[in-house]
Amino acid sequence: MTAVLSAKASAPATKPIVLALLIFSFAMPFYFHLGGLKLSGYRVILLLFMFPAIIGWLSGKAGKIRPIDILVISFSFWSALSFSVNHGLASMWQFIGMFMIETLVPYFIARTYIRNLESFRYFVKCLFLLILILLPFALFESFTGKTPLLNLFGKVLSVYQKWIFEPRLGLLRAQTTMPHPILFGVFCAPAFALTWYVLGWHKSFFKKVGLTSVVGGAVFFSLSSGAFLNVVIQLALMGWNWVFQFLRKKWKVLLSIFCVLYFIAEIGSNRSMFQIFATHFTLTPGTAWARIHTFNFASDDILRNPIFGIGLHDWTRPHWMVLLSSVDNFWLVVTLRHGFPALFLLVGAVIVTFFQLGSRNLTGATADARLGYLISLLGLCVSAVTVHLWDATFCFLMFLLGAGVWFLDADDGSGQDGDQAQAEEGGRKMRYTRFPRALPGELSIGRVARTR
To answer: Per the UniProt record, which residue ranges are transmembrane (predicted)?
Structure first.
């Protein structure tokens, strides 16, 4: 009881402004140079809140240090070491420093400032509001090919380049304010399950559909197979949860089914699972062909450099693939640049997150928020097999990874507080608490916790 009360008492303000600033800065398309550093909107926010976030984590405001924290920190330092080995520290110290900031600071901002259900819901609201603002511009871009937001910001500062592709499904791909249309879709997609389970808590089915349609519309106009796959995975998991809600161990059953099907596919098919995945989950056959060959040749470089990878050096490929320089697989890029240890550390952080959060006994709004969070994180991690995450989208992945650690410190009381807050938003003042009302002249335990 004392530990729970102290954890609640140490939580910062329930709606920290840094969460809104960081989420909206991810969608800022401009950048400028200062002292040799390339700074963008989100990098400015990371630099401003770097020390408060890290000091808050070290001081215990984010709860105790978790194995997930150690894995993320180890991934960052190993990646920095691999850059130093491949390129030398003297010539890469600025790049390495900024890489570590983009890896660690978004994670620690989420760890330090998202400490309860209300702050978690605030983060989801900010993300949803940003997507709602970008949706009309995405619609406009898909039909006209014009980029009004890039043009607007471009009148003052340097902005990301405008990408022009062949139409898909009769539409042009929306970029809005992101470096690439793929990143626009991938950035918006994790909000799908979060919106359904967090913002849609205790709302009617039609209101939930209306809210998630905003996210689905933004993802659609990106016309990215990776973003589409993200939403499809989330829908499948949400459907499984609804159909088998009576089954206590439904997620273990699903994991077992997946392992069996994976084994059968590997044994019974003349193609690898990645080849099957790339062939059936892309919008154009040419894209699938490129992904398969890229995977094969990049894997050869990885096997030749398994410990530290090849850094930022160009990967080996035949002359007829010289124009295909990009590697559209985030996990493959991590291994290619930093070696297997970096891959194991980052994947290990994701796996530990799922197992530790999944083992917590939570109820009410907190349990639903956890479910939405885990589904969103899984969708992003799986879709990252088909896309590379860089710039703000990579920072968003690290932020999302840290945004769910607070569930490990949550208890039934947190869920009840969330139920009460949601009820008050709807105009119904309902009181859910396991503690009795304080008698005149007395303080309840909950009030003592909040005033410490």
So the answer is: 16-34, 40-58, 92-110, 122-140, 182-199, 211-233, 253-269, 340-359, 371-390
CB neighbour list of residue 392: distance below 8 Å, 6 or more residues apart = 25, 26, 27, 40, 42, 178, 179, 183, 187
- CB crowding 417-426: b at 16 or more within 10 Å, else e: bbbbbbbeee
Percent of the chain at pLDDT > 70 equals: 83
The beta strands (E) that lie in 25-180 are given as: 30-34, 37-40, 158-159
Asked if residues 375 and 240 have their Cβ atoms less than 8 Å apart, the reply is no
Question: What's the start-to-end Cα distance of the chain, in Å?
Answer: 14
Distance CA 179, CA 159 (A): 9
DSSP β-ladder status, 37-40 and 158-159: unpaired
CA-to-CA distance for 236 and 54, rounded, in angstroms?
A: 37
DSSP 363: -
> Quick check: helix, strand or coil at residue 40?
strand
Count CA within 13 A, CB hemisphere, residue 308: 13
State the DSSP H helix or E strand holding residue 82, giving kind and residue range, or none if neither: helix 67-87
pLDDT given for residue 292 in this prediction: 81
Strands 158-159 and 30-34: antiparallel
In one-letter notation, the amino acid at residue 145 is G
- Of 60-64, 232-236, 255-259, 265-269, the one with minimum mean pLDDT is 265-269
CA dihedral 110, 361, 125, 448 (to 10 degrees): -80
Asked whether 318 and 284 are in contact (CB, 8 A), the reply is no
168 bridge partner residues: 171
Taking the domains of the chain in order of start, what are their residue ranges? Answer: 2-134+177-414
pTM: 0.86
